[in-house]
Amino acid sequence: MTDVWIFGYGSLVWRPDFPYLDTRTATITGWTRRFWQGSTDHRGVPGSPGRVVTLVEAEGEICWGQAFLIDGNDRSDVMRRLDYREKGGYSLHDVEIDFPEVDAPPASGLIYIATPGNPNWLGDMPIAQIAQQVLNSVGPSGANTEYVLELADALREMGAVDHHVFDLAARVRAGG
What we know:
This protein is of the alpha+beta class. The chain has a single domain, classed as Roll (Hypothetical upf0131 protein ytfp), CATH 3.10.490.10. It has helices at residues 11-14, 75-85, 127-135, 144-157, 163-173; strands at 4-8, 22-39, 50-70, 90-97, 107-114, 138-139, 142-143. The strands form two sheets. A five-stranded mixed beta sheet has the order 2-3-1-5-4.
């Protein structure tokens, strides 16, 4: 198999758990990150889902994340692990990835996106209500607050601006 880039925009940004050849700060165009996906397998439980990010199409928007180059020899194993990790409503899509910090051409890659048709879709809600749900959610992978705060910190560290994530993180830090 050939090497492949994987674009991460949620927990993969701060907690990849697979081998990779290279990692770079990256962007994709036409998408915005939103805490509209429910998590009943990692950051919440059935009946009390946590909130995790997905992407929503948004013309002209740029979503910052982390791209990982997967060795072709590891590709089947890594994809099997990612399919399991992203099983709660995410599906695999092709994406064009840009690397703003290095002089490199765009690359074709893969991305996991949860869309409104999946059973864990929660959709839009006022940010204060999302914050309350995050504050009250814990699952097998830990507290939902950890997910929000780690993502916000990682995005700040890479110089990204994401008002949705930063607003939610501020509310979570303040306790609601």
